[in-house]
Amino acid sequence: MQTSFGTGQTNRENTDLAFTDPLTGLGNHRRFFDKVERLIADRSDDPAPFAVGILDLDGFKPINDLFGHKAGDDILIQVAMRLRASMDSHSTVCRIGADEFAFLYPMVFSEEAATERARMLIEILSAPYDVGERTARLSASTGCSLFYSGEETTDILINKAETALYHAKRSGRGKVVVYTREMEEAAKRVTRIEQALRRAVSAGEVEPHFQPIVDLGTRRTIGFEALARWSDPDLGPVSPSVFIPIAEERGIIGPLSQLVLRKATEAARGWPGDLFLSFNLSPSQLVDQNTGLHILSILERTGFDPRRLEIEITETGLMNDPISAEKIVEDLRRVGIRVSLDDFGTGQSSLGRLREFNFDKLKIDRAFVSSILEDRPSEHIIRAILAMCEGLGMDVVAEGIEQEAQADRLVQFGCAGGQGYLFGKPANADATLGYLRDSFRGALRARAI
Questions:
Q1: Do the Cβ atoms of 225 and 193 come closer than 8 Å?
Q2: Alpha helices in 336-403 (DSSP H)
C-alpha cells in the first residue's frame, strides 16, 4: 500500500510539473488550455459567457538586453506575482510564452467588463520593477475574446484573443482590444492577401517602380528609389502600405525583397552609369545575417555595380537588433554599397544612431518637408539637420516635395537632394527608361541653345 501511495503521489507531482512554468510558478500553456477546455465543458448545456485574454509585455526584449537575462527573469517573476495577486478566487493567470501571459475570467460576461479587468492588469504592471539597485518600467498590451456559444473551442477562443492582441500592439503600447466580428473579417482579408502574395512572389509578379531623386539646384536626375508594386488578378492593385506589413509579419519579406531587388538591378543596369539605385531594407532583414550575402549574390548575378547601389534603412529597423544591423551595414559598405538613414526625425534616438553607425546619406522625412512653408518648427528642424549633416560629411535628400515653393525653400537652406511628386511619381521600368530618354534629349536641346 505504501508503494502504491508513493507512486500515486509521484504521478501527481509529475503532472503538476508538466503543467507549471518553472520560472514563475504559474501554470503554463498546457494548464491554461486545460482550464479553458474544462470551463467550456462545464457550460456546454448553458453557455454563459466568460472571458479569456493574452497579455504581452511591451518592449521586454530591449530591457532584457540592457539589464541582462538574470534581471529579465527577475522582472518576469515580479510580473507573475502582481498578476497572481490581482486574480480573484474564480480567475486564473498562466505564463504561456517568453513574455506572454494568459488569463481566464469565468465570471466576466461582457466586453466592457473584460476591457475594464484588462486595463486594471496593465495599470498594475506599469509600476516600477526592482532590478538590483536600479528600476525599470514596462507597459503591456492585451487582447481579449469572449465565449458565447458551445460551438467555440479553446483554440478558437485563443486565436481570437491573439488576433485582438495583434490589433492592440499595432495601436501602440498599453492598449486593450476585445475581439470583434470586424476583426475576423479583417483577419480573413489579411490571410487572403498573404496567400495571394506568396503566390505572386513565387511567380515573380511583384514589380519595381522607380521614383526620381534629383539635384535640387540643377533639377538633374541623379538616381531612383525602387519601390515594390503589386496588382493581383482577383484583388486588383494592392497598396504597399497594406502588403509590405503583411509580408513583414508573415515571413515573406525576404523573398519579396530579393525578387524586387533582382528586377530593379536588371532594369537599372541599362541606365547611364552615373545614376544610382536606392533600395529599402525592412526591419526583419536587419536581424538576418544572410541579408548581405543575398544582396551581393543578386548584384553578382545581374552584373550591377555595388557602388551604384544605396541601401535605405530606418531607425525603427535599427532598434530591433543594433548589433546585427551594424554588422550588416559594415558588410555592405565594405563592398562599396552606400547606406542611407531613411525617415530621419520620426524614430527614436536619432542622434545616437548617427554616432553609432556610419551613414553615407540621410533622408529628411516628408512630415517636415510638407509643413516647411507654414510651420516655423519644421523649418528650424530642417535647418538643424542640414547643418549637422554638413558637419558629419553626409549627403542629404528631402522626401515628399510636391510644390515648387518647397523645393525653393530647401535650396535656400542648402539642401542638395530632393524627391517627391514634383519631380515624378513612381513608374515602371519601361516608363522610367522613357523618362531618361526624354531627360537626355532635353539636356541636348539646352546645350544647343
A1: no
A2: 350-356, 366-369, 376-392
- Beta pairing class for 276-280 and 221-232: parallel
Looking at residue 1, its pLDDT comes to 47
Residue ranges of domains in the chain, CATH in brackets: 13-179 (3.30.70.270), 189-448 (3.20.20.450)
Q: How does DSSP classify residue 7?
A: H
Q: What whole-number distance in Å separates Cα of residue 153 and Cα of residue 37?
A: 8
Q: Which positions ≥6 away from 215 have C-beta within 8 Å? A: 222, 416, 417
What's the half-sphere exposure (Cβ side, CA atoms, 13 Å) at 318?
25
pLDDT top residue among 57 and 344 = 57
Q: What's the predicted TM-score (pTM) here?
A: 0.74
The grid coordinates listed for 22 are 518553472
Distance CA 369, CA 313 (A): 19
Strand (E) or helix (H) holding 226:
strand 221-232
**What's the CA gap between 130 and 207, in Å, rounded?**
51
The values of phi and psi at residue 58, to 5°, are: -80, 130
Residue found by looking up cell 541582462 in the block? 68
Q: What is the pLDDT of residues 365-392, one digit of tens each?
A: 999 999 999 989 989 999 999 999 999 8
